[in-house]
Amino acid sequence: MTSGAPRIAVVVVTYNSAEVLPGCLRSLAEGARGTRLARVVVADNASRDGSLRIAGEATDLPVRTVQLGRNAGYAAAVNAGVAELDLGALDAVLVVNPDCRLRPGSLAPLAEALRRPGCGIAVPRLVNPDGSLQPSLRRTPTVRRALAEAVIGGGLAGRIGTLGELVTDPAEYERAGPAAWATGAAMLVSTDLIREIGPWDESFLLYSEETEFALRAADRGWTLWYEPSSVFEHIGGDSGVNPTLAALLTVNRVRLFRRRRGSAAGSLFFAAVVLGEAARALAGRRTSRASVMALLLPSRRIRKLAD
């Protein structure tokens, strides 16, 4: 990180985001107060709703648009956006969803966190549109945590010490500190880290790509830092109501764990996740039913995203 105001670029990934993109773009100038906003790249996954037109009309920002030509996924769009930047002229890149709104001055605390030795990623406090906390921090995935979440649910497991993967205790969100990984809706990433560990893994299409990126960074000695004085509003929620997206999220969780921990531990993790999703499917949850089908029947898994 250079001395003086940090130089930051923003990569916004869009896919039919016309309804939410204007609010995101309007929040960037005030959100970047205290930093130097060098570039905004809108990387678009073949939107058909005017998202690119909206980006082009944001003449008060240094916007550049990138068209991927297809719905290539979140990681591919992030990589395409980063490829448009001169990383040598920047200190950090904010990767952000179009349904996020930056509170005034919210980028500066994240940039300050990146000045900590070894800190490569800084994430904000996420809140829902009504201002309530949106749990976004995660612990390292383990078989024990997957089993605990299967038996008693992620919300309760997250409140019992470090039993759950999802951090749900509101008190944990009141203090800054390191985390294993966090929701990828908003992440400020050091350009030093980007140059060292390379691009995001495009094989995940959507979900778990931020997990893989953060854990890969940790493997190389980098820290992810949570900074509650930085606040972003995040609408979100699609994977909680859309069975197809929920199934993709669940399958990608298992894929990533197996890749990192091997087949033996991966099989145990798979069994724990199936147990939890099957129990919730029997209770009538449509997203869990879709997840079980995708886990047990490879033919039901998503191989590419629809345009």
TrEMBL record:
Drop me one GO molecular function for this one.
transferase activity
Which residue ranges traverse the bilayer? 264-283
Q: Where is the signal peptide?
A: none
- The answer on whether this UniProt entry bears the keyword Magnesium reads no
Gene3D superfamilies registered for this protein in UniProt: Spore Coat Polysaccharide Biosynthesis Protein SpsA, Chain A (3.90.550.10)
The UniProt keyword set, sorted, is: Membrane, Transferase, Transmembrane, Transmembrane helix
The identity of this protein, by name, is: GT2 family glycosyltransferase
Which residue numbers delimit the Glycosyltransferase 2-like domain?
A: 10-139
